[in-house]
Design brief:
This protein is an alpha/beta fold. About 40% of the residues lie in helices and about 20% in strands. The chain has helices spanning about 10-20, 40-50, 65-80, 95-100, 125-135, 170-195, and strands spanning about 1-5, 30-35, 55, 85, 105-110, 135-145, 155-160. It has a 7-stranded mixed beta sheet, covered by helices on one side. α1 (about 10-20) links the parallel β1 and β2. The protein is globular, with a radius of gyration of 16 Å. The chain binds glycinamide ribonucleotide (GAR). Glycinamide ribonucleotide binds near residues 7, 12, 87, 108 and 123.
Length: about 200
């Protein structure tokens, strides 16, 4: 199965996928390209270090959002992946891309959907929201992407304990280590080996 991984930042989830392929916990999968909307994303360095083609497609390079969206869809069409993995990609996926790649785009979100998801909940903001509400359990979710924000069918979830002295940063790290880096590789392997979930 050919996958494209879309990223915006540090790329620790990308690294978990690379590691999973290398140690064969993800089977039958090849990362054919990493695409970032941010030229400075460390994820692009991780791609380069692992011999994976990397590309930046930034909204800043285009006259308007429509042109950016068009370029993103064109890149997917060019590479023609079996699966598109949003691994910390903090850009709204164009409706045209969702329609074209229905059932072929998955996303990792750092909470137990439907809590702390949707518009405005991304990255550290998710963990700030969880701490503010005082939940004792949070976690991560892998889901298919539909036309909404974090509304698509759920594939896997994993719970993580919130500790009394957590900061958004310590909670983010625990959710990554205990949940995200486990369930994202697992979901990809499930799709690569069974064709679906
Ligand atoms: C991850 O925690 C991911 O779940 C989150 O951004 C972080 C990216 O980290 N994604 C979202 O919030 C999507 N709504 P990474 O670049 O180290 O993988």
């Amino acid at each position: 199965m050919k996958i494209v991984v879309l990223v915006s930042g540090g790329g620790t989830n990308l690294q978990a996928i690379i590691d999973g392929i290398n140690n064969k916990t993800i089977r039958n999968t090849e990362i054919v390209e990493v695409v970032s909307n941010n030229a400075n994303a460390y994820a692009l360095t991780r791609a380069k270090d692992n011999g994976i083609p990397g590309k930046c497609i930034s909204p800043k390079e285009f006259a308007d959002r429509d042109d950016f969206n068009k370029a993103l869809v064109e890149e997917m069409d060019r590479v023609s992946p079996d699966l598109i993995v949003l691994a910390g990609f903090l850009v709204n996926i164009p409706a045209e891309m969702v329609a074209k790649y229905e059932g072929k785009i998955i996303n990792i979100h750092p909470s137990l959907i439907p809590s702390f998801c949707g518009k405005g909940f991304y990255g550290l903001k998710v963990h700030e929201g969880a701490l503010k509400r005082g939940v004792k359990i949070t976690g991560a979710t892998v889901h298919f992407v539909d036309e909404g924000t974090d509304t698509g069918p759920i594939i896997l979830q994993k719970a993580v304990e919130v500790k009394p002295d957590d900061t958004p940063e310590t909670l983010q790290r625990r959710v990554m280590e205990e949940a995200e880096w486990v369930i994202l590789p697992k979901a990809i392997d499930m799709i690569a080996t069974k064709g679906n979930i």
